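Honest question from a wet-lab person: if I give you the sequences of every part of a complex, can you actually get the arrangement of the whole thing, not just the pieces? Trying it with mine:
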Amino acid sequence: SQQGEEDPQALSIQEGENATMNCSYKTSINNLQWYRQNSGRGLVHLILIRSNEREKHSGRLRVTLDTSKKSSSLLITASRAADTASYFCATDPSGYSTLTFGKGTMLLVSP
Amino acid sequence: DAGVIQSPRHEVTEMGQEVTLRCKPISGHDYLFWYRQTMMRGLELLIYFNNNVPIDDSGMPEDRFSAKMPNASFSTLKIQPSEPRDSAVYFCASSLYPTGELFFGEGSRLTVL
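Yes, you can. This is the full assembly:
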C-alpha cells in the first residue's frame, strides 16, 4: 500500500507565488525525501530530512517534518515557470529496506 | 559521472515480443533499483540489487519479468512475452545506500501494442 500520500494532487499558481505541497504517511520513518520529475524525465532528488529534524532549507525550498502528525510539507518560494513539474515524497518506513513513493503533486506555474 | 544511463528511451513492440531494457548505474553505487511508473499505480519498485545480487524481487509482477545484474556496471530488465498492460515507463535508479538519495535514469517508455 502507498506509504506517502501527497496533497493536493494538482496545484496551479502564478509565477512569483509560493507553492505548498503536503505529504502524509502512515508508519514511523527514518527519513523523508522529496523528488521532482519534469515531464518525460527521471526523478531528481531535492532534499532529505531526517526524523529528528523539523525543518530544512535548500535555496528556495523549505521542508518541514512533523513526526507526531506523520506529515511533511514542501514549500517553494517565489515560484518560476521552470518549477512546473511533479513533486513526490518518499519515505523509508521503519522495518523496510527501500523507499516508498507517493503518487505526487503536479505543479503548474504560469508566467 | 554521466549519471544513470538507460536504453532504449522509447520502445514500441507488439504483444508477445521480448523486451529488454538496459541500465548502467553510477560507478561506485552498490544499490540498483528497477521501478515502473504508470498513471494508475504511480511508482512501483520491481526489484533491487545490492552488489549485483538480487535482494528483493517481490515487486516483479509475474514470471514474465526477469532482471539480471551480471556486473557492477550493467543491469537488464526483460519482459517475455510482453503484454499491452506492461506499457509504462521503466526507471532504473542507483544509490550508495538502500534508503538514501536515489539517482534516476531518464527512463524507458515502453508501449506494447
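Two things worth pointing out. Chain B has a mean pLDDT of 96. The two ends of chain B are 36 Å apart (CA to CA).
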